[in-house]
Amino acid sequence: MSNWKKLGTRTATLALGTALLLPALTAHAATPYTAKDSDTFWKLSKQLDIPLQQLMAANPNVNPLNIYAGLKLVIPDTTAKVMAESVAPAVPIAPVQSVTTTAGQSLSFSKVMDIKATAYSASAEENGIWGAVDFFGNPLKLGTIAVDPNVIPFGTRVYITGYDFSGLPTGGLIATATDKGGAIKGNRIDIFVPGSRSFVSDFGYQSVKVYILK
After folding, report:
1. Distances in Å between the alpha carbon of 135 and those of 41, 61, 81, 95, 145?
2. Going by C-beta distance under 8 Å and a sequence separation of 6 or more, which residues neighbour residue 61?
3. Dihedral, CA atoms, 190, 175, 178, 124, nearest 10 degrees?
4. Which of 172, 169, 189, 171 is CA-nearest to residue 181?
5. Is 170 a domain residue?
6. Element at 127 (helix H, strand E)
7. Are 42 and 177 spatial neighbours (Cβ–Cβ below 8 Å)?
8. N or C: which end of the chain has fewer CB within 10 A?
């Protein structure tokens, strides 16, 4: 991926102790939270069982790469959403779709997309001053992909097939959308591959199928 992979994705940091509040859905729709050194939006969304996009929307001015001990965050209250869902009209259940991995694991998916894929490494030339981390500050690893979040939302788990490259598992790869890049727009993904920049560049451009997992 090009050197400007991370450009345009960062937001301003906040002074220590600054609280962030979003207009409340109810009188108690947000809870203050004081961050710890190890916190990231991704970890908090899993620990608190809150959708990643909802957590980020509640803290629009926080730089995901600068969550530090003492930073005041807002934890959105999902009660209103749960109540709305409880009274929503029933929606017909779509037939279960599944794909089987080369290891024999059956994965349920909601949609399959034809995507143009590239690959990137952990090299400084590709990641610039931000270093070898994803958009949320987590270390890059096999299974990290960069996406256009308007097409594949952050936090989406996917199963990728159809590529031909020795640096990736044969047959298919289960990955999570936790990164983005300036060149990744529309039906594009960038797959992180461990290894040197020259090795990873041999991936080139490939057409793959991306299964959006449930």
Report:
1. 10, 14, 26, 34, 10
2. 11, 12, 14, 20
3. -50
4. 189
5. yes
6. helix 124-127
7. no
8. C
- CA 50 – CA 44 distance, rounded (Å): 8
Q: Is 73 helix (H, G, I), strand (E, B) or coil?
A: strand
Is residue 47 included in any domain, yes or no? Answer: no
pTM of the model: 0.68
Q: Which pLDDT score, from 0 to 100, does residue 131 have?
A: 86
Tokens at 144, concatenated: 């990290």
Q: Tokens 């952050």 map to which residue?
A: 154
Return the pLDDT at 8: 39
Residue 166 belongs to a domain with what CATH number?
Answer: 2.40.40.10
Determine the residue type at 29.
A
What residues contact 67, with CB distance under 8 A and at least 6 apart? 35, 39, 40, 41, 73, 137
Q: What would the pLDDT profile of 157-166 be if each residue is shown by its tens digit?
A: 999 999 999 9
For 189, the domain range is 98-213
Going by C-beta distance under 8 Å and a sequence separation of 6 or more, which residues neighbour residue 198? none
Please report the sign of the dihedral spanned by the C-alpha atoms of residue 82, residue 83, residue 88, residue 90.
positive
The pLDDT averaged over each successive group of 10 residues in the chain (214 residues) is 41 43 47 90 90 91 90 80 48 73 93 97 87 93 97 97 97 96 94 97 98 95
> Does the residue 78 lie in any domain?
no
The number of distinct structural domains making up the chain is 1
